[in-house]
Design a protein that fits this description.
Layout (H helix, E strand, L loop, with lengths): L9 H7 E4 L2 E5 H8 L3 H10 L9 E3 L2 H11 L13 E3 L1 H11 L2 H37 L5 H11 L23 H4 L2
Antiparallel strand pairs: 1-2, 2-4, 3-4
Length: 185
């Protein structure tokens, strides 16, 4: 159980936020971990208060989405695992889940999570505004600044993933050559 005064780092929350169905969500097991409760406990409370979770607050992943997540996180499915598909909570569902858990820790953590959602939204908006402003400036000035605008766009682009090398490399042991005196023996 988490301490009431403990704050979760924004990076930890950001890692739990996924983009599914065109919206940012947190899966039930990640949310339960953040709240310091078991996934079973969180889902029990959600089921008891199902009327508080409309489809825009929470939805269940389908089999393909759950399979894709499992393959991305490289989890084992040989032993243990889940019997049911995970729930995905939107920003509003996160707030509501804190209300159904009804603990001071859950409320405190939900505030941290909502702040992270808001900060991510502001970052996305700022990036869109920056790109729009850059387009306006590019249209305003002539071709002499095209190189500058292209360089700025390159800096704004996410880093490219390094290409994997194709093929293999063979490592062979070096051949030992014997000296003439060793051959006579």
């Amino acid at each position: 159980m988490k301490n009431n005064n403990e704050t979760i780092p924004a990076e930890t929350i950001e890692q739990a936020i996924l983009f599914i169905h065109g919206q940012k969500i947190i899966l039930d097991y990640d949310l339960a971990k953040l709240y310091g409760v078991t996934t079973k406990r969180l889902n029990e409370q959600v089921k008891r208060n199902r009327n508080r979770f409309p489809k825009d607050f929470m939805f269940r992943l389908n089999k393909q989405e759950a399979k894709n997540l499992r393959s991305q996180s490289a989890t084992s499915k040989s032993r243990g695992g889940r019997r049911y598909l995970p729930f995905a909570f939107t920003e509003h569902g996160v707030v509501m889940s804190a209300n159904v858990l009804n603990s001071a820790t859950a409320i405190k953590i939900s505030i941290d999570i909502v702040r992270t959602f808001v900060r991510l939204r502001q970052m996305i908006t700022a990036h869109k505004n920056l790109a729009k402003r850059l387009n306006q400036l590019e249209n305003k000035y002539d071709a002499q600044f095209k190189i500058v605008f292209d360089a700025i766009r390159e800096l704004m682009a996410p880093p490219a993933k390094p290409k994997k090398r194709i093929g293999f490399s063979a490592k062979e042991k070096r051949a030992r050559y014997l000296a003439k005196k060793d051959l006579k023996k």
